[in-house]
């Protein structure tokens, strides 16, 4: 990988180590600002809604302001909002800071992903995005340990740690990523290209929303479902650590000839198939080792899906439009983030954990079939021999 890509990967590890505060947002509002659970949930939902336009604005700013400037501005904005949350003296101020955090939370994603796609080149995009996902997983291991330490002391310190990690990440990017250059002249067709009018991108967005809904429901439901299976809620932290470790340790598998030779559709389908098997494992698991085995299968599926999905979207983008395409595709996480908690809790409440995991496995199998059916290469037009 080129040096700037390595810098971005290291910066994201640093940022991810501190980025464990958002899951504790509702808990902070309830504990320190005496908000009811319903009020805390509404504020947390506002954060999720605000994060959807944040990614789209990030794509726009990257094209106009420059990628490095947008990344740095987004990270500094996150740090200021986090410090505001940590130091707020009242619930309204904390709620305003939470909404502001949502507005800047995703600004850096489109430009950083576009830089990776551009610097890695067509032949290295899939590998680079897989490493990007592994960097997040590696940072997530440290994030869980940091959250366990600081969260027992005072929840506000989680937001301070997150702010510090954002500033360190911004400093790394500012010092080591190449400076922004003037946007290259583009023809009118390229500048007018809209990802929302590209059928191939809209297809990837629909399938990506299905995956985001699947992934975020796993994250939401796993801690809630474990007690019904005879396990402790805190065991979810161990399972999340196992998942992150499997994503990191599994990176060499992507370099195996047979895995690397898989087409986009086949690789995505195989990844969703592994996730489906892992989810069925959750439905049957009654011990921590069996749940860990199911977690590893889901993590291997994630390993195959994440890099290929973002690589495929980057390949769809016309020259100079990667920021906007990746920003549009990234909204799938916002849509999934709003729906996943609602769907997962309803399934758990009314149907139970076995039905939940079986339903999610069926969704994953549906995505498997969709990738095999819909991702078909366009037929090569027959050339008429000259007369």
Brief summary:
This protein is mostly helical and 387 residues long. The protein has helices at residues 3-18, 25-32, 37-64, 67-87, 91-105, 109-120, 125-153, 156-176, 188-192, 199-225, 235-249, 257-260, 264-284, 288-316, 322-350, 353-374.
Fold blueprint:
Elements: H1 3-18, H2 25-32, H3 37-64, H4 67-87, H5 91-105, H6 109-120, H7 125-153, H8 156-176, H9 188-192, H10 199-225, H11 235-249, H12 257-260, H13 264-284, H14 288-316, H15 322-350, H16 353-374
Helix pairs in contact: 1-7, 1-8, 2-3, 3-4, 3-5, 3-15, 4-5, 4-6, 4-8, 6-15, 7-11, 7-14, 10-14, 10-15, 10-16, 11-14, 13-14, 13-16, 14-15
Principal-axis shape equals globular
**Whole-number count of domains:** 2
**What does the largest sheet look like?**
none
In DSSP terms, counting alpha (H) and pi (I) runs of 4 or more, how many helices?
16
């Amino acid at each position: 990988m080129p040096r700037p890509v390595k810098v971005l990967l290291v910066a994201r590890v640093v940022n991810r180590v501190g980025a464990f505060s958002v899951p504790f947002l509702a808990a902070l509002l309830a504990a320190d600002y005496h908000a009811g659970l319903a009020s805390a949930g509404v504020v947390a939902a506002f954060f999720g809604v605000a994060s959807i336009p944040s990614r789209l604005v990030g794509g726009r700013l990257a094209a106009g302001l420059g990628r490095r400037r947008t990344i740095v501005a987004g990270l500094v904005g996150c740090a200021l909002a986090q410090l505001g949350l940590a130091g707020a003296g009242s619930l309204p101020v904390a709620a305003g800071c939470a909404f502001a955090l949502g507005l800047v939370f995703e600004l850096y994603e489109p430009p950083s992903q576009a830089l990776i796609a551009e610097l890695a080149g067509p032949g290295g995009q899939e590998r680079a995005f897989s490493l990007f996902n592994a960097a997040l997983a590696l940072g997530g291991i440290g994030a869980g340990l940091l959250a366990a330490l600081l969260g027992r002391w005072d929840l506000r310190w989680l937001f301070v740690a997150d702010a510090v990690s954002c500033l360190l990440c911004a400093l790394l990017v500012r010092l080591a990523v190449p400076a922004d250059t003037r946007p290259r002249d583009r023809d009118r067709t390229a500048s007018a290209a809209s990802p929302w009018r590209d059928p191939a991108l809209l297809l990837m967005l629909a399938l990506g929303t299905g995956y985001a809904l699947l992934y975020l429901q796993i994250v939401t439901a796993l801690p809630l479902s474990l007690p019904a299976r005879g396990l402790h809620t805190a065991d979810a932290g161990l399972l999340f650590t196992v998942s992150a470790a499997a994503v990191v340790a599994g990176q060499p598998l992507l370099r195996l000839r047979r895995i690397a030779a898989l087409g986009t559709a086949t690789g995505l389908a195989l990844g969703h198939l592994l996730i489906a098997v892992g989810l069925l494992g959750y439905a049957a698991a009654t011990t921590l080792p069996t749940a860990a085995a199911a977690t590893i299968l889901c993590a291997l599926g994630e390993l195959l899906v994440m890099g290929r999905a973002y690589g495929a979207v980057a390949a769809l983008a016309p020259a100079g439009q990667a920021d906007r395409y990746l920003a549009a595709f990234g909204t799938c996480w916002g849509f999934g983030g709003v729906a996943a908690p609602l769907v997962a809790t309803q399934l758990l409440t009314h149907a139970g954990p076995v039905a939940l995991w079986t339903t999610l496995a069926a969704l994953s199998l549906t995505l498997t079939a969709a990738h095999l059916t819909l991702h078909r290469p366009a037929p090569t037009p027959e050339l008429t021999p000259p007369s």
